[in-house]
Amino acid sequence: MVEEIRVAKGLEGVIVDRTAIATTDREGNLLYRGYRVVDLAEKKDFESVAYLVFHGKLPSMDEKVQFSEFLVKNSRLDARVLEVMKLMKEPNIMNDLRSVVSLSPYSHKTNGELLMEIAAKMPSIIFHSDAAITGRKEIQVPNTTYAERFFSLLTGNADRKKAGYLEKLMIMYMEHEFNASTFALRVAASTLADPVSAVTAAISTLKGPLHGGANSEILQYLLKFRSDDEAVSFVMDKLARKEKIMGFGHRVYKIKDPRAQYVKSKLRTLREAEKFLSYAEAMENYMWEEKHIPANLDFYGALLMHTLGIEEKFYLPIFAASRVFGWSAHYMEQVSDNKIIRPQSEYTGPVGLEVP
Ligand code: COA
After folding, report:
1. Pairing outcome for strands 22-24 and 35-36
2. CATH architecture assigned to 20-208+312-336
3. What is the mean pLDDT of residues 44-49?
4. Which CA distances in Å does 8 have to 178, 181, 275?
5. Which of 96, 130, 257, 298 is labelled catalytic?
6. What crossing angle do the helices spanning 160-173 and 146-155 adopt, rounded to 10°?
């Protein structure tokens, strides 16, 4: 008798390895290295959480100063790289991010140093990719945090309060165990490919609309509504046509995405968000009543970035510049206890054909 094969399409429900970096607990909270991510976002800055995710423990004062200095020191791009970017004038920043990261020189460095150098350069790559098209100039803001520097690169604006909101969102985006881009990175790492190649694979995977690419599509509908009713009608039409609505659904969170709820609570503190927040909640409530599908981080994340005055072209690059710290931790974890990731498939094609 032929043994029945159960194909785990999309690897749904399959546990492929162990990780000590992140998980979701029984109450549905996302944890980084054991700490609830919403507590980290309330009490810690981006640099401390990035250090925690990458090194596995919160930094001491000295460690944090050193780490922050490392990120600043390594943020600048090589003059030759800047020349290439000017020649490319690539309109899609994610394409530049993927291409420019792949140009990183990787000799003479440890994997850890190289990964943190790539992470440190991401905000500059994003800025210069945009500047190659728009001709924008960098504004100099002294004594700033990682989020403040990044916010000013994105918006040309040094508003510390707004940068603080971006910082919390970036903490939410930083890590999410075996999501698609991290898994792609771990597959590459499991072949013992170098960190540059593995991060390039992760960026390429993040770009798809079912993963990170969802966040730039959300505003395309949200900004068009003029009432809660219009927002609900939009959902009804989409569901009737059996089309997916970007910003809803998640492989892990079937009831609530804690990150989305946290970002929504932050949006409630911004008066400028009031109108769109009402449309967003109308959609969320209807979607839940009809389909029991929750809003995800991208849904409220896109609305927060819009409220902060960040242009849509930066949404996915911001996700990448945050998640790179999670990717880096996963690279190190994969190679520290490696087995090549090589699943198998059920063959459905013909057999025994005669070659004519
Ligand atoms: N809009 C409408 N229906 C949705 C939906 C959405 N955003 N997300 C899931 N569904 C429906 C599916 O059509 C499917 O219905 P069916 O069982 O009647 O066929 C069911 O919910 C299960 O969805 P499925 O796509 O199989 O779940 P998944 O775990 O494989 O996929 C996502 C998860 C995130 C890829 C999926 O929810 C999605 O495509 N969401 C939109 C993109 C997005 O926002 N991505 C960002 C994720 S953070």
Report:
1. unpaired
2. Orthogonal Bundle (1.10)
3. 98
4. 15, 19, 42
5. 298
6. 110
Cβ–ligand 1 distance for 214 under 6 Å, the answer: yes
Active site residue 39: no
CB 53 within 8 A of CB 33: yes
DSSP state of 109: S
Is the pLDDT at 1 greater than 70, yes or no?
Answer: no
pLDDT in tens, 295-351: 999 999 999 999 999 999 999 999 999 999 999 999 999 999 999 999 999 999 999
Ligand 1 contact, 244 CB (< 6 A): yes
Ligand 1 near 247 CB (within 6 A): yes
Judge: domain 214-307, CATH 1.10.10.60: no
Average pLDDT, the chain: 95
pLDDT of residue 106: 67
Task: Tell me, in angstroms, the distance from the centre of ligand 1 to residue 245's CA.
Answer: 8
Instruction: Specify the residue with its C-alpha closest to ligand 1, atom 30.
Output: 251
pLDDT at 220: 87
Q: Which atom of ligand 1 is nearest to the CA of 257?
A: 48
- Of the residues 128, 176, 250, 330, which is catalytic? 250
pTM for this model (two decimals): 0.95
